[in-house]
Amino acid sequence: MSVTDSLQVVLANTYLLYLKTQNYHWNVAGGSFFIGLHELFEKQYTELAEAVDVIAERIRQLGPKVPATFADFAKAAELKEGDVSKTSQQMLADLAADQDKIIQVLKNAWDVADKSQDEVTADMLIERMEAHSKAAWFYKSSIE
Ligand SMILES: [Fe+2]
Fold it and tell me: N or C: which end of the chain has fewer CB within 10 A?
């Protein structure tokens, strides 16, 4: 797999997680937990919105056009879309598990970048792993 192909997989999963986190921001309900979770999800989807821009623009720096339709993202993403029937606790567990899954996707892409001696892409992927590691901590620590 090329660096840009692996970045497209990273982009699709990040975009799906962005939409899913915003979905949960809109649909979370849970009595006294509501405001805290509503705001936590907003903080996270805002970070993801900035990340998708950085990832897509890295693909453009390497050359190819960026596949950027909902259909493109759904086809390339491994993460599952949000489920509004989940309780607030289930949403937290779902998003916590997604952080671990996307870190694995990022590690795979990092291996490709490393083998291609593309240090700039590899460094960006490390930054994304750091962000998702922190998000996993926030979500896991918020589970009752
Ligand atoms: Fe909002």
Answer: C
